[in-house]
Design goal:
seven-stranded mixed sheet; disordered N terminus; elongated; 16 strands
């Protein structure tokens, strides 16, 4: 009987018809963003490994039809590509396995710190709505583009951007620039005379992400702006206020 069972198991393996448990983990690649306490969001991407200058990297590209995933990471194992959990950059030394996945064992609190700085390129293994393992990756950041469209606030670090009939969700961090047409950074959107607009109606007064967050809270409807962003990262680098329909 034991011999028969073993033979049958080998036959199943050979045909590839191995049953997958209902609770099997799902794997997703992409740029993770903070999405509330102990939670992250990630839009699934394709990740193709390649080697450059001795480093195992991943080329990240769009995954058509992908839907954003929101996960609780409070119980997840976090593996960084840095040699220590508290490093911001790799500082020329990386800790990755042969597949290019981060190896340094860190805590969920370390992931919280990483996400505060901006998006993190990751491979996540998860079941249901809970992340089990979050591996950092090394990879390209994708190209950047500037486009005109309308923006709308989602929360203090996220907007939606509509341009050319397509709406995407974009995040921003403390490094984002905000170019205003108003006299002061804290003035309401398009309030007062456009004292800091160029002849094309674009804002020239440099402000920061804090001003952007504050000002956008007072805007009820989508508003016109020029947005410099990375489609692959889903990140805004700069928002420029536009006076009127200029």
């Amino acid at each position: 009987m034991r011999s028969f069972v073993a033979t049958a198991a080998l036959a199943v393996c050979a045909t590839g018809l191995i049953a997958t448990p209902a609770s099997a983990a799902t794997v997703v690649y992409g740029f993770a963003w903070a999405d509330g306490k102990g939670a992250l969001r990630v839009l699934p991407r394709t990740a193709k490994p390649y080697t450059s200058q001795g480093y195992k990297l991943h080329k990240i590209t769009e995954l058509r039809g992908a839907k954003e995933v929101r996960l609780d990471y409070t119980g997840a194992a976090y593996r960084r590509v840095t040699t220590a959990c508290d490093l911001v950059e790799t500082e020329g030394r990386v800790a990755v396995d042969r597949n290019g996945l981060g190896k340094t064992a860190c805590r969920p609190a370390d992931l919280t710190t990483s996400l505060r700085r901006g998006p993190v390129l990751v491979r996540i293994s998860y079941t249901g709505a809970k992340a089990a393992t979050v591996h950092e990756l090394l990879g390209g950041q994708g190209s950047q583009k500037t486009a005109r469209g309308t923006i709308k606030r989602v929360n203090d670090t996220t907007i939606t951007f509509t341009s050319g009939g397509k709406t995407v969700k974009l995040g921003y961090s403390h490094t984002m620039g905000f170019n205003r047409v108003t006299a002061r950074c804290g003035d309401g959107w398009l309030s007062g005379r456009p004292v800091n607009a160029d002849r094309d109606g674009l804002g020239t007064k440099l402000c920061d992400h804090k001003a952007f967050t504050k000002v956008l809270k007072g805007v009820r409807y989508p508003t016109l702006a020029v947005v410099y962003h990375s489609p692959i990262r889903g990140e805004v680098f700069e928002v420029t206020e536009v006076y009127g329909d200029a």
